[in-house]
Amino acid sequence: MTLDFLYGLVPLTFWGYVLVAFCMVQLTFMAVTLYLHRDATHRALDLHPVLRHVFRFWLWMTSGMLTAEWVAVHRKHHARCETADDPHSPVIHGLRKVLWEGAELYKQAAATPGLIEKYGRGTPDDWVERNLYRRHRVLGIALMVSIDLVLFGVPGIIIIAVQMLAIPLMAAGVINGLGHHTGYRNFECPDAARNIVPWGVLVAGEELHNNHHAFPSSAKFSIRPWEFDIGWMYIRILETVGLASVRRRAPQLGRTAAKDDIDLEGLRAVLVNRMHVLRHYAKHVTLPICREQLRSVAGRRFGEAKVLLVREGRLLDADAQRRLKELLASHSTLRTVYEFRERLNALWSGAHASNERLLTHLRRWIGDAEASGLTALQEYARFMRSAALA
Known about the structure:
Elements: H1 14-41, E1 45-47, H2 49-62, H3 67-79, H4 90-93, H5 95-110, H6 115-119, H7 127-133, H8 137-152, H9 155-178, E2 199-200, H10 209-214, E3 228-229, H11 230-240, E4 244-246, E5 253-255, H12 264-272, H13 274-293, H14 299-310, H15 318-330, H16 332-349, H17 355-370, H18 375-385, E6 387-389
Parallel strand pairs: 2-3
Antiparallel strand pairs: 1-4, 5-6
Helix pairs in contact: 1-2, 1-3, 1-9, 2-8, 5-9, 8-9, 13-14, 13-16, 15-16, 16-17, 17-18
């Protein structure tokens, strides 16, 4: 008696089943990052309507996720990041809870009254969404399970399990958890987001989480030359066949001849490129002066001081803030450098100030930096006079 029926219509080798499961999971991650994240949430990308619906259909079958819910939860995450209202911050909830219970946190947030009305605007509300996807969320998963069992038989059960675990574990858990806990930071954005690894391949580029939080409206997540965002590769391929068009990418800070009197164009370049400006300040002012001031102490002390001086103040706990105060009190030069950084930060906190006031603020900052007597600050002031939009 043959048992071929146990292996469905498409019997494969062990590695064949592994490849099928991997490709299905990658298609799900593509749908999340390209459609839900970069297109629907941040409008950094325009996907062809047909491709949008293919992704909507695939997400309905593999996870039961609705566009409006996912978009609303993610927009609230950006709006309330690292606060008690953040749906899934490991800073608030703890890494373990977000890592292993990220899907539950997502469901709790999605059920919040008024969430979709406030954060889910612009998401699909057509007949299919109202009458199929919302009304019969479990039907899509049941359809996917049936297809897997018919095609692959008993091994299809493992494929189903892998598909069902992919989003809760890798997206809701790893990206939302480790992405705010472990890795490196290119930019000191006002939240704890980190790049888990410099090569965003396994989770379609979402691993470059710090870059995304620094430039949330950018369709491309990789910033540094050695970083790779496979989601961006998908976008470029889709562009060539007319299925996608990029709306926005991260700004770049250009250089021009230094101006004696910085104008509105220079101000705009500084405002638009906040993350680049602050990173340049940390690299060329804070860190060199910190190294010079603390060169006689142990390397560990320098490493701690570097973090205290560069990190956003709201991300420092009470003990770190105490150590920062002690450091600044004992090193007047470091205090000067830190105060200049805080004054620079004030440019962006005054978002509703007039252009004239912002320009006056920037001119005064540059003038004071040039008169500070610190070479690194004076050179940075010249850099600011040459700032331009790339």
